[in-house]
Design brief:
The complex is a heterodimer. By secondary structure, chain A is α/β, with parallel strands linked by helices. Chain A is about 30% helix and about 15% strand. Chain B has a two-stranded antiparallel ribbon with strand order 1-2. In chain B, strands 3-4 form a two-stranded antiparallel sheet. The chains are: A alpha/beta, B mainly alpha.
Chain lengths: ~400, ~475
């Protein structure tokens, strides 16, 4: 007999979207090369100075104020090269760096110089010099240039993001359990409900309960255990890439738009970084031996202001940080054309000026790791990128 | 695009499909009323293998089901459990219910007559038939298709008469078990009345709990309803609607209900139901519910009185009632008083984002519709599945508890990740909310950290959560 209970069970099972467009386990013809490439977009503008603090800069501690981190104390930053360090949350990334499997890029940005998330993300995904120049993404154009005839790209997303949109087919996959929305999103909705006498108090009360139950869970678990909400995404991508299916994957993570109370070595942003760090290690584990053939680029649409704002956060800026990691990477180095943190060195006296074009990083990896020709890179994949000179020796 | 156009689409419709606010803006009231020129649209099965069956066909199907179930039970008693067959049998019934509800959701996502659809939802909920009752669960969809949809622009009396005799209602409120104690069947089987339908017909469907009836009236109504049943008499030609009157179960003799005597027989019962449908208390009861559903959580006495008068004077004309609600001075007030119910919220979301897309593959369409069904359930509501014959609550409070609100905005964030990367979110927000969008929401959307977050904020905004 149909009961409410069995109806409910089946309904909730259907509640989460599970998008499988085509079978990834299908046999693939031998594709050229065994290299894997993963592009991780951090949507919302990661604060590069919080992820990779330039603690050796004489002005760092004073301009960063309450957001500054130190090499000593209860929660010290993780030193990289005596000048730059990593946020204490990035434990696994520090290990990759020490194993020469991580390179860090600083004071880097796309050619975009305004401060809109939508436009900045459009530029980092289309690979143009300004927003809305192209309707397809640079990674899709790269797949076309590689002669991809099959589905060789995977989007860990509900819908393939713009960077993978275009002629080459991409598949998309999401784990059954979707990641929870980030705290910043809840904060924004709360602000929208400020004048709503019914929805406002309800949401506040729910968020308070949620925080309490999380705190209780955190206490119960090891304090060292990072928040793991990105783990299913990264582990899933790793498993799919380790097989005979796609060679290229794109993941996206939000929660970086830290206008309010971003924290330093701990707090909101550090928790988010910790989730990313845990995700990366889960992917490495899932890739197994394929890790050695993998290069991962992590980038964000732009950086954030050097000085904290009035609410313990940072506002939209220009230059930021990016990462290249994986077993195929010749790492252990910070690449930064550093200009200092004095007001006169900053763009509009507030942002890192971005002395490195993000496309230089993308081009180098596509050329040296995925075997794209320099000609294709500077014509179809990244038109008008002649000024962005590729790095040498980023790939082992 | 006018503010009235946006209100017409959101408060009285199901939320904006692309371009809908613009279409409604010219003459919002006319746009709404034009939707009531014909009976409501009928849903179409999403999974062709599970067609939507008529009430009459379901009566026959139900007989077969119970026969098979009996065989399986006997086999089990004999130590031969036919588990696979049993599972398949119950699964087919489950698929029928899910198929009905999926078709209903799908119609809500795409209909170009959203006001007509809202009226369908309101009247279906008024009659409470619920799949929570296993006995009638497969009949619920047919109830809405056969009793409600053809009659949203008819009279209340026609709708009540159709509701009472429908197999779904006969089963839901146990009238099939009610036998006149002095009827042939009653005397032979020593069985008697079941008051369930008689009581709810007065308490919930017509007069209202304080509408002026006594326990004696409940018994009288139950007696009048004896003999109403399903056409599961396999001899003789089948009836068109699955209903049949069984004189041998009908209580003989004239019966006094609320001071008026009704002769025995089907016609006498229909006359009694007609009097209830046209009762003064009924007009008030319906006016309160209608105003609460469409206009305000706490409708003013003036608001209710206007609807009540129109209902009475028009002889329970449901189109006139709907038009009267649109004529209320507060009908197009900018303040959004009501919180969308979960089904309304999920529907408005799919309409805004145009899900499922017209070119989506059948599997994807099914998944997306099933996804919507699942989340509506998680937010606390599912169509035709209320826990009691009272139906789902009409007040905002029922849907805005802490956990429900959190689930809603979490889902908003999830579903927003389905937007195509090239979508213009500012334009989407403008066409979706029109003049209802507040400065605060518009700023939040413009400053969101990604396009998908912008859409999530749009969906979570008070203007979208309310109507």
């Amino acid at each position: 007999m149909i009961t409410r209970r069995n109806m409910l069970g089946a309904m909730s099972a259907a509640g989460a979207f599970n998008v499988w467009e085509g079978s990834l386990s299908a046999a693939f013809a031998a594709v050229r090369g065994e290299q894997r490439f993963v592009f991780v977009i951090l949507r919302g503008a990661l604060d590069g100075l919080a992820a990779v603090p330039p603690y050796g800069d004489a002005d760092y501690a004073s301009v960063r104020g309450g957001l500054a981190m130190t090499k000593t104390g209860s929660n010290p930053l993780l030193d990289l090269d005596g000048f730059f360090g990593l946020n204490p949350a990035l434990i696994n990334m520090k290990a990759y760096y020490d194993a020469k499997q991580l390179s860090v890029f600083h004071n880097i940005c796309t050619p975009y110089r305004d401060r809109s998330h939508f436009d900045g993300q459009n530029v980092i995904e289309t690979g143009g010099v300004s927003p809305n120049l192209y309707h397809d993404g640079w990674l899709n154009r790269a797949l076309v240039a590689m002669g991809a005839r099959r589905v060789e790209a995977l989007a860990v997303a509900q819908t393939p993001p713009l960077v993978l949109t275009g002629k080459a087919r991409a598949t998309s996959w999401m784990p059954d359990t979707l990641p929870e929305p980030d705290d910043a999103y809840f904060g924004r909705v709360q602000a929208l409900y400020a004048g709503d006498k019914m929805l406002g108090p309800s949401l506040s009360s729910a968020l308070m309960l949620r925080a309490q139950s999380k705190a209780a869970m955190d206490d119960a678990a090891s304090k060292q255990k990072p928040k793991a909400d990105l783990v299913p995404l990264f582990a899933g991508a790793g498993r799919l890439l380790a097989g005979e299916g796609p060679r290229v994957a794109v993941l996206e993570a939000s929660g970086w738009d830290t206008h309010i109370n971003q924290g330093g070595g701990d707090g909101q942003l550090a928790r988010r970084l910790s989730a990313l760090d845990a995700g990366l290690d889960a992917m490495k584990l899932a890739l197994g031996p394929i890790w050695d053939k993998t290069a991962v680029v992590i980038a964000t649409e732009f950086g954030r202001t050097v000085k904290p704002n009035g609410s313990g956060g940072t506002d939209h800026g220009t230059g930021g940080a990016a990462f290249l990691l994986g077993g195929a990477v010749a790492g252990g180095k910070v690449h930064a054309e550093w200009a200092g943190l004095k007001p006169e060195a900053l763009k509009d006296s507030r942002d890192l000026p971005a002395r490195t074009d993000m496309r230089a990083l993308f081009k180098s990896v596509l050329a040296d790791h995925m075997g794209l020709s320099r000609a294709a890179l500077s014509t179809t994949v990244f038109p008008e990128s002649g000024g962005a000179k590729a790095f040498k020796g980023l790939i082992a | 695009m006018s503010l009235e156009g946006a209100i017409a689409v959101h408060r009285f419709g199901l939320g904006a499909r692309p371009g809908e606010i613009a279409a409604a803006s010219q003459a919002p009231k006319d746009w709404l009323l034009a939707q009531l020129e014909a009976p409501a649209e009928q849903p179409v099965a999403i999974v062709p293998a599970t067609p939507l069956m008529s009430g009459a066909a379901l009566v026959a199907d139900d007989l077969q089901f119970h026969a098979k179930e009996k065989l399986l039970n006997e086999a089990r008693k004999k130590g031969m459990p036919m588990e696979e067959e049993g599972k398949a049998l119950y699964k087919s019934r489950y698929d029928m219910v899910v198929g009905e509800m999926a078709a209903r959701f799908a119609l809500g996502f795409k209909t170009t007559r959203p006001f007509a659809e809202r009226l369908v939802w309101f009247w279906t909920n008024h009659f409470g038939v619920s799949t929570a009752n296993p006995r009638c669960s497969v009949f619920a969809g047919a109830f809405e298709r056969e009793v409600i949809r053809p009659n949203i622009n008819g009279t209340f009396e026609i709708m009540v008469q159709a509701a009472v005799r429908h197999p779904a209602m006969q089963l839901y409120l146990d009238n099939v078990d009610s036998i006149g104690p002095n009827s042939q069947a009653g005397l032979r089987a020593k069985k008697g009345l079941n008051e369930n339908l008689g009581r709810e017909l007065m308490e919930l469907f017509t007069l209202g709990v304080d509408g002026g009836y006594t326990q004696a009236d409940v018994i009288a109504m139950a007696k009048l309803l004896t003999g109403f049943g399903l056409d599961n008499n396999t001899s003789g030609p089948p009836s068109a609607d699955g209903y049949r009157f069984y004189p041998q179960r009908h209580e003989p003799g004239a019966i006094v209900l609320r001071g008026k005597s009704y002769p025995a027989g089907e016609a006498g019962t229909r006359a009694a139901i007609a009097d209830l449908a046209h009762g003064k208390a009924t007009a008030h009861h319906i006016a309160v519910k209608f105003a609460t559903a469409f206009l305000a959580d706490a409708p003013t006495p003036t608001m209710v009185k206007r609807l009540e008068d129109v209902f009475s004077k028009s002889g329970g004309d449901l189109k006139a009632l709907a038009a009267a609600a649109l004529d209320d001075p507060h009908a197009f007030a900018p303040k959004l008083d009501k919180v969308r119910s979960p089904v309304e919220f999920v529907t408005a979301t799919y309409r805004l984002l145009d899900i499922p897309k017209a070119d989506a593959k059948p599997d994807a369409v099914t998944n997306q519709i099933r996804g919507a069904m699942g989340v509506a359930r998680m937010m606390g509501e599912f169509p035709m599945a209320a826990p009691s014959p009272k139906g789902w609550p009409l007040e905002s409070e029922a849907w805005s508890g802490p956990d429900a609100v959190l689930t809603r905005i979490e889902w908003a964030r999830q579903v927003s990740q389905r937007i195509p990367p090239n979508v213009d979110v500012v334009a989407l927000a403008a066409s979706g909310l029109g003049a209802l969008m507040s400065e605060t929401t518009s700023t939040a959307i413009a400053h969101a950290s990604s396009k998908s977050e912008a859409v999530a904020l749009l969906l979570s905004s008070p203007e979208f959560q309310r109507r």
